[in-house]
From TrEMBL:
PANTHER family: COLD SHOCK DOMAIN-CONTAINING PROTEIN E1 ISOFORM X1, UNR PROTEIN N-RAS UPSTREAM GENE PROTEIN. This is Cold shock domain-containing protein E1. GO terms for molecular function: RISC complex binding; RNA binding. Its main location: cytoplasm. Component of a multi subunit autoregulatory ribonucleoprotein complex (ARC), at least composed of IGF2BP1, PABPC1 and CSDE1. Interacts with STRAP. Part of a complex associated with the FOS mCRD domain and consisting of PABPC1, PAIP1, HNRPD and SYNCRIP. The interaction with PABPC1 is direct and RNA-independent. Interacts with EIF4ENIF1/4E-T. RNA-binding protein involved in translationally coupled mRNA turnover. Implicated with other RNA-binding proteins in the cytoplasmic deadenylation/translational and decay interplay of the FOS mRNA mediated by the major coding-region determinant of instability (mCRD) domain. Required for efficient formation of stress granules. It comes from Astyanax mexicanus. It is found in: Cytoplasm, P-body; Cytoplasm, Stress granule. Residues 709-750 form the SUZ-C domain. GO terms for cellular component: cytoplasmic stress granule; P-body. Residues 22-86, 180-242, 469-532, 634-698 form the CSD domain.
Length: 759
């Protein structure tokens, strides 16, 4: 729209000599170059051009009171407003009100907004138990001070006589809100500590009485927030509270890695006058500029010893507080050893007194202490090697570790010369020990450093012996001994860990082994030269039967004389069809089958008498006997209680009616609650003799609590109450809600809220 001020009618005051009638109104609409005014004395809406406003157009906004004269447009003849002057709003009685900022004007909008739109904030105050909210603009704040949420302020209240809107004016800051600071606990003493602040490079003192939380859990490195107060001229931290770990961040570390050269190393022994926490220096070319970066002891990626001239790669860390840059995650580049003149040696890691530095890992097998001959030699055992366990049977195998107390000797000929060479049991091929006078084949190994020779890779030739190797299965493992279940699964034999050929730690329940049977003190039978072998297969039927344990294994009930457990076939659980059942004529109801440790689905499970199980049948190759195998218990019980990291299941094992379980044994990471139905396995702790549950799996959740219906007496009472009953309780509305401007209801735009009192 184009507008020409020369086209105005003078209305009796041409050339500015006359005095026209002045009216008042409210700016209703305001655009870039024009707007509209709503008259106060009459129902009229007048156009005005911004050139007719006498004042700073930037201060004019919608809702402002203005005074103007009425003229007419010569072109259209329509009335328009000219000579506009802003009227100062009416101020309520001179009474300053104390309040608080509840919504501050954002910093990025302070004084900057679209034409006709002014950013606003809000304050609140309390009168007679009611809380009122008022808006304010940046012009309403004295001295152009920026207010923050929570600041205590005082102000006057004014009402726009045309719109009835109430707002705050002449706002003065009374008290700034205390800002909360963040930091990291860097030191703790007996009754106080220090916090490294996140806003400035500075530490601040705090007393333990100012810590709001569990003081026992407070430790160096914890993130905290606090309020700073001045006491005796010094800043101290008060109201210290813990923050989630990782909240406070001091530095930003670059993603990009850089390469540089060490120009100054950290002194091994710091001098008395050294106060620099970052004494190291690295020179690098970054963005085509030579730059020297600092680093300290904690900035090396590994504990490698740095030397001047080392080629390194690193990240750059920038402190958020003072923008100080330093090198961190420093690691030596592999090619650095080609440039330095240091003497390098090769060795394996061992417990030595010499101090090795700047260690570089080599491929496995690069370093060897021995040289082994390719030629094979033949000789005769002149002296048997004795194992440490043979002389000290009570020594724990973990302490012995198959060390020889006395080495053996082999006599052999080389180029017509008779020689002898020692050997050790650890150098045997297999677990068969050579005996005196036996012929053996071997190679010779020589130690590079000492030149000492020994026989290795020994094989026994043409052994003729009636010693029979027997098959068995690991049934029990104790601290330094165990028991082997025989191949017939009908008894168990003792063995000491010293008789185990190989690492005892690799043994598990149910493992197949070979052994030699011998008699010890008191004619007691024990197993010797125990060797672990691959699993032994058995003929297993595909049909699954249901049964009940009528006798557990002797490892579960040591008081019984029989080693084997016994299962009776029942008709509970899965039902077999007629064709399958006819094939299993020996598996009718009431038929019993023995089982051993190999037949357990979980070798560590403790089957109790009376438990229901699923199982299959297998045939023992040695005897043809049919036994139960793949025995899996069918246990269902309720969780009685859960306490932090453990709980109890309502299940009777021995004399205890509760079964302990740890939360780490719960499958799928579920959180169990009291009343949940679970299935589980029972294991026996060999040391304590107590049982606990493992492999706990939730079958169903506990039923959710149902809301209790209202008692009949209350229902009947409510039915008997009528609106006409004067003695009945009644709800009476004293007044309808109104705002401070006497408007009805709650006006969201003005952010006015009241609290009504209901009797």
């Amino acid at each position: 729209m184009s507008f020409d001020p020369s086209l105005l009618h003078s209305n009796g005051f041409a050339n500015g000599t006359g005095v026209g009638l002045r009216e008042t109104g409210v700016v209703e609409k305001l655009l870039t170059s024009y707007g509209f005014i709503q008259c106060s004395e009459r129902q009229a809406r007048l156009f005005f051009h911004c050139s007719q406003y006498n004042g700073n157009l930037q201060e004019l906004k919608i809702g402002d009171d203005v005074e103007f004269e009425v003229s007419s447009d010569r072109r259209t003849g329509k009335p328009i407003a000219v000579k506009l002057v802003k009227i100062k709003a009416e101020v309520l009685p001179e009474e300053r009100i104390s309040g608080q900022v509840v919504s501050a004007i954002p910093n990025h909008l302070d004084g900057k907004s679209a034409p006709g739109q002014v950013p606003t904030g809000s304050v609140c105050y309390e009168r007679n138990g009611e809380v009122f909210y008022l808006t304010y603009t940046p012009d309403d704040v004295e001295s152009n001070m920026h207010l923050d949420t929570g600041d205590k302020v005082s102000f006057y209240m004014e009402t726009n006589k045309h719109t009835g809107a109430v707002s705050a004016r002449n706002i003065v800051l009374v008290k700034k809100k205390q800002m909360r600071c963040q930091g990291v606990v860097c030191a703790t003493k007996e009754a106080f500590g220090f916090i490294e602040r996140a806003d400035v490079v500075k530490e601040i003192f705090f007393h333990y009485s100012e810590f709001k939380g569990d003081l026992e859990a407070l430790q160096a490195g914890d993130d905290v927030e606090f309020t700073i107060k001045d006491r005796n001229g010094k800043e101290v931290a008060t109201d210290v509270r813990l923050l989630p770990q990782g909240t406070v961040i001091f530095e930003d570390i670059s993603i990009e890695q850089f390469e540089g050269t060490v120009t100054k190393v950290i002194p091994k022994v710091p001098t008395k006058n050294q106060n620099d926490p970052l004494p190291g220096r690295i020179c690098a070319r970054i963005n085509f500029t030579e730059k020297e970066l600092l680093f300290g002891e904690k900035d090396t990626k590994s504990k490698v010893t740095l030397l001047e001239g080392d080629h390194v790669q690193f990240n750059i860390s920038t402190d958020r507080r003072d923008k100080l840059e330093r090198a961190t995650n420093i690691d030596i580049l592999p090619d650095t050893f080609h440039f330095t003149k240091e003497a390098r040696e090769m060795d394996m890691l061992s417990a030595q007194r010499n101090h090795a530095v700047r260690i570089k890992k080599l491929p496995k097998g690069t370093v060897s202490f021995h040289t082994q001959s390719e030629q094979r030699f033949y000789g005769v055992v002149e002296k048997e090697a004795m194992c440490a366990s043979n002389s000290k049977a009570n020594v724990s195998p973990s302490k012995g570790k198959e060390k020889d107390i006395e080495e053996g000797v082999i006599a052999y000929e080389d180029c017509g010369v008779k020689l002898t060479v020692p050997y050790h049991l650890k150098d045997l091929d297999g677990c068969v020990f050579p005996q005196l006078g036996e012929k053996v084949e071997f190679s010779i190994s020589e130690v590079k450093r000492t030149g000492m020779q020994s026989a290795v890779s020994l094989k026994i030739l043409n052994r003729t012996t009636n010693t029979k190797r027997l098959l068995g299965f690991i049934a029990t493992l104790k601290d330094n001994f165990g028991f082997i279940e025989t191949a017939n699964h009908d008894q168990e034999i003792f063995f000491h860990y010293s008789e185990m050929c190989g690492n005892v730690d690799n043994l598990e329940l149910g493992d197949a082994v070979e052994y030699t049977q011998a008699k010890g003190k008191g004619n007691k039978i024990s197993a010797e030269k125990v060797t672990k072998i691959p699993p032994v297969g058995e003929d297993i039927s595909t049909n699954v039967l249901m049964g009940k344990v009528i006798r557990p294994l002797r490892s579960v009930d040591p008081s019984q004389t029989e080693y084997q457990g016994l299962i009776e076939v029942t008709e509970e659980g899965e039902q077999l069809n007629l064709f399958t059942f006819s094939l299993l004529n020996s598996s009718s109801k009431g038929q019993t089958y023995p089982f051993g440790i190999v037949g357990m689905g979980n070798k560590g499970d403790c089957l109790q008498k009376g438990e229901l199980v699923k199982f299959q049948l297998c045939t023992v190759p040695q005897t043809g006997q049919r036994m139960a195998c793949n025995v899996v218990p069918q246990r269902l019980a309720l969780v009685e209680c859960v306490k932090d990291q453990f709980g109890f299941i309502t299940y009777e094992v021995g004399e205890s009616k509760k079964l302990f379980f740890h939360m780490k044994e719960v499958q799928d990471g579920l959180e169990l609650q009291a009343g949940d139905e679970v299935e589980f396995s029972v294991i026996l702790n060999q040391r304590t003799g107590k049982c606990s549950a493992c492999n706990v799996r939730r079958v169903s959740e506990c039923p959710k609590p149902v809301a209790t219906p209202r008692p009949d007496r209350l229902v009947n009472r409510l039915k008997s109450i009528t609106l006409d009953d004067a003695s009945a309780p009644r709800l009476v509305i004293i007044r309808q809600p109104r705002g401070p401007d006497n408007s009805k209801g709650f006006n969201v735009e003005r952010k006015l809220r009241t609290a009504s009192v209901i009797e």
